[in-house]
Amino acid sequence: MANRVRLGFVPLVDCAIPVVARAMGFAARENIELELVRELSWAAIRDKLSFGVFDAAHMLAGIPIAGRLGLGGLPVQNIVVPMALGRGGNAITVSTPLYQRMLKADPYAMMGPRGLSARALRKVIDEDKAAGRPVLSFATVFPFSSHNYELRYWMAAAGIDPDQDVNIGVIAPPRMFDSLRNGWVDGYCVGEPWNQRAVFHGDGVIVALKDDIWPRSPEKVLGLREDWVQNNRDVVAALVRALVRAAEWADQPGNRLELAHILSEEANVGAPFEVLKASLCGRPVLRPGEPPVEMPDRHVFYRYTATFPWLSQGRWLGEQMKRWGQIPGDVNLDRVIPDVYRPDLYRMAVAGLDVLVPQNDSRIEGAADAPDRSLVGPDRFLDDSVFGYRDGLS
Amino acid sequence: MVKLEEYNILVIDENPDRAAIVERGLVESGYARVSRIGTSHNLVARIQALAPDIIIIDLENPDRDTLEQMFQVSRAIARPIAMFVDQSDASMIQEAVSAGVSAYVVDGLRQDRIRPIVDMAISRFNAFDQLRRERDEAQAKLSERKLIERAKGLLMKEKGLSEEESYNLLRKNAMKQNRKIYEIAQSVITAFQLEF
């Protein structure tokens, strides 16, 4: 008899891996009957996983860490991460009026690398301050989302204090696009297709992509309850294998059009095919009416160890929580992260398969001369910083 | 000691019918200060203005993500609010999750004071679900009856049968094929549509 696994997901391009695992039969081949449940909020995903409505979930990479630390007014939740669900896909989109102001305030910054476009935003903020206007409002998708940390990283690198100079709130991904269109926010950081959609409708302009801030950075992960993992070792291994195979399929350029069709279905992402195609085929349109740019790594599902749950990336997320005051500076992340991020489960699941597995569980993030750079691909931070976390080296 | 009726309760629900029955349940149990809002872009400002002690919100409501950020940045509101999940009360958590109820309370509010409020929300959510199911079933029944009427009409007109003969024919075939009468009626309608 097949093992039933109930997996919750949020309608975003990076729900592709579980959706493909079901649609293309990778789950069935591992004797898993994968039931997918579409949710519209990260809080609902987290709660339904924690309280056993789901066995597994597509979740923001920071949620399991926040859960382990009992953040957000919740009791401690023991969610573990046996694999990542791809890389890329986020962007910072601003409203067309704000884009025009940024362009006017600092045309040179807007022509330079997109990772530094916040320099123009800083000038706009300075103008507003001088004129006594209210601060601009931005949105991300969750307090512990990579989006929140990316938006803050991008702003801080240009000298903007995200806690003082702007308002940063939270809006669930499917609602972002309407919020920008209605003028409730001036900009946001969200995963696709919710940036591309604003551009296609002429409501927003993409000013930075996730890869402009830190390519290969953590994004979504597979979350499982720790007790469920302990009682279902074989199912966990089979599920990880099915998802890794699905990731491999989704990563093939030749399969991306079919993937765009699958994701456009209402039960999956439910966004227009053209919007998904632009993003999935690595040709996003950044400004309304302009030709697309070539970004073959816009969505990475498999290559560059995109499914490996690097301890160093979990650690980076923990450091961002400290940086922005979500946790005290003295929390010992070395004790927390290895309980949450579980590369051992990944290694066990894919052992014997032709899946490229890194030698170590941690790496030096962002260093051009890191020994595993060719395996992971370009991973330069916008400010050239290097994040070292070398324990687990053999 | 705060009296029951002094708790300030806020119900956030995109479904106005469900919000209304939750509100009525609470008011009838003696909670006088109950307000409700649908979805709103200035949610944070409205909650600040209402300063609720307890928020009841549909578990799946996307506004929960917005609320949780607001509670994180507790300076934004008068008093810090924490999600109400007392681990010692696992049965209630299960009931709340399966009913689709989530709740946020002012930190420090006593568990025994919260429980009746959440219990009321759970029972009202369940009652609402039941009502909705019954309504859906009634609508389905209505459309089944319409299908049978149409099939009967077609048989009378096209085959010259009486109303009773038409109905008996549908019933006999349903029994023979072990299917529902409305399913046979649907097949009859499809068959006649094909002929034209």
TrEMBL record, chain A:
Coiled coil: none
Main location: membrane
CDD domains in alphabetical order: PBP2_NrtA_CpmA_like (cd13553)
Subcellular localization(s) per the UniProt record: Endomembrane system
GO CC terms: endomembrane system
Cross-referenced Gene3D superfamilies: Periplasmic binding protein-like II
Keyword Transmembrane: no
Entry keyword set: Cell inner membrane, Cell membrane, Membrane, Transport
InterPro entries, alphabetized: NrtA/CpmA_ABC-bd_dom
TM regions (residue ranges): none
Signal peptide positions on this chain: none
Protein name: Nitrate transporter
Organism: Thalassospira profundimaris
Species lineage: Bacteria, Pseudomonadati, Pseudomonadota, Alphaproteobacteria, Rhodospirillales
From TrEMBL, chain B:
Ranges of residues in domain Response regulatory: 8-122
Protein keywords: Phosphoprotein
Sequence positions bearing 4-aspartylphosphate: 58
Residue stretches making up the ANTAR domain: 128-189
GO biological process terms, semicolon-separated: phosphorelay signal transduction system
Molecular functions (GO terms): RNA binding
InterPro entries: ANTAR, CheY-like_superfamily, Sig_transdc_resp-reg_antiterm, Sig_transdc_resp-reg_receiver, WH-like_DNA-bd_sf
Xref: Pfam families: ANTAR, Response_reg
Protein name: Chemotaxis protein CheY
Protein source organism: Thalassospira profundimaris
